[in-house]
Amino acid sequence: MATEIDYYEQLQVDRGCDGATLKSSYRKLAMQYHPDRNPGDAEAEAKFKAISEAYDVLKDPQKRAAYDRYGHAAFTNGGGNNAGGGGFAGAAFNDIGDIFETIFGGGNGGGFGGQQQRGPARGADLRYDMEITLEEAFHGQQTEIEIDVSVGCDECDGSGSEPGTGSRTCHTCHGHGKVRAQQGFFVVERTCATCQGRGEVIESPCHVCYGEGRVDKPQTLEVEIPAGVDTGTRIRLSGKGEAGARGAAPGDLYIFIHLKRHPIFERDGTTLFTRAPISFSVAALGGEITIPGLDGTKHDIRIPAGIQSGKQIRQRGAGMPVLRGRGHGDMVVQIDVETPTRLSKEQRQILRQFQETETGAESPQSEGFFSRLKDAWEDLTE
């Protein structure tokens, strides 16, 4: 019986190593023993295939967990069953599946489990966080972003195989992409851990992508930011995510929008809020203030005489545009009456003269408050 070399020993790493260490060691060894660098060296070719097989198992968390638990038996004859034997392979393996399907139904005439082998997995979706100003959200814009993302390998055209070579049928699942094992009275079907459900194994991995069929490259992408976006808005770029393994479809890229803090406005949906301090005299006599809008238009806000601090004035249609719709929200201006703190001698004299003429009717809220306060005090002292 041939001696099975430990996968960790083949890759010269510790059992507890992380994925980055594992990948680094594999690449170093793959470069060392690649057939292109060792033409005619059968020992180097065998070593290259062995480390490629070891990496194919250990780079996948599920396969690595199965290997850590069962060793090489996890990928032999259906792997790691606890029926006390060598698993279920060959004709007997299919017979059990046929009986299981006869009892429970299912299948589409595809043979093994009524299903064809699975293809390579679709690429992962990616996320990109973009921070923009409120003005950019108001107008919308077309911009460019740069990201590092995996794309199809040009050397092997995404196949993962060295040019001029191919793949072989997986010996574990016999090309079906799935394996079955008995657990007690039940037959459990799961994706083949050796070929990851593809039904085939690469004989000679590509020296550029190391069998992945994809490589990491910086990409420049154009992004259309529609007017009216807000924090949390998600923009989808179809097919711009991670490339699929060995020629499979790529995933999508999702742009998540975050708005920078604005020095004047706060936003709530399509409504813009701002605070405008006004002088005591404008609050008393009335007047007009000008607020510049995000569209560059100056909005004249009329201040009614006798306005109180905290009063809100709404300017219709001066807010944010409706995302992918028509119209705009409103601008809400909260008035803050500012008490003067630096008065000239003349201003103080004028205010004293005004104070001497006050009857209380000028400030009904103050008059009412102190009147109620007086009544409450008299009730307490009776």
Task: Give an account of the 3D structure.
The chain is α+β, with helices and mostly antiparallel strands. Among the domains are: 66 residues, HSP40/DNAj peptide-binding domain; 36 residues. 27% of the residues lie in helices and 25% in strands. The chain contains 9 helices and 15 strands. The strands form 6 sheets. The chain has a 4-stranded mixed sheet. Helix 2 packs antiparallel against helix 3. It is elongated, with a radius of gyration of 37 Å. About 11% of the residues have low confidence. Belongs to the DnaJ family. Its cofactor is Zn(2+). Pfam families: DnaJ, DnaJ_C, DnaJ_CXXCXGXG. Its main location: cytoplasm. It is found in: Cytoplasm.
Could you name the key traits of this structure?
382 residues, alpha+beta, 25% strand
Biggest sheet descriptor: 4 strands, mixed
Counting helices, strands and paired strands, the structural category is alpha+beta
Q: Separation of termini?
A: 110 Å
Radius of gyration using CA atoms only: 37 Å
Q: Report mean pLDDT, rounded to a whole number.
A: 81
Question: Shape from CA axes?
Answer: elongated
Fraction of residues in β-strands: 25-35%
Uncertain runs: 77-117
Order of helices and strands: HHHHHEHEEEEEEEEEEHEEEEHH
Number of helices: 9
Instruction: Give the C-level CATH assignment of the domain at 276-341.
Output: Mainly Beta
DSSP strand count: 15
CATH superfamily grouping of the domain at 276-341: Urease metallochaperone UreE, N-terminal domain
The CATH architecture name of the domain at 276-341 reads: Sandwich
